[in-house]
Amino acid sequence: xxxxxxxxxxxxxxxxxxxxxxxxxxxxxxxxxxxxxxxxxxxxxxxxxxxxxxxxxxxxxxxxxxxxxxxxxxxxxxxxxxxxxxxxxxxxxxxxxxxxx
Length: 101
Description:
alpha+beta, 4 strands, 20% strand, globular, 3 helices, 39% helix, four-stranded antiparallel beta sheet
């Protein structure tokens, strides 16, 4: 089955399951604030591992104690797909273990 962009309704429904996530400029985005730089760096490394497992990669920005993530699916013209929301769910599963505030 070919990968298809999600409809606006599907995006809105999936966002209700991901508090803290939003859509901006056709990208699914989330910012995390952590206790310190080491915790933020550890979260980035863990996200990178998940992305490699899924073979679906986001843009990550590491600040002193922040991590910003944004993702869409390039292979469907930069639209949002189930892959983006799958990545977001996996990140949400591990974020609390890194002390996200």
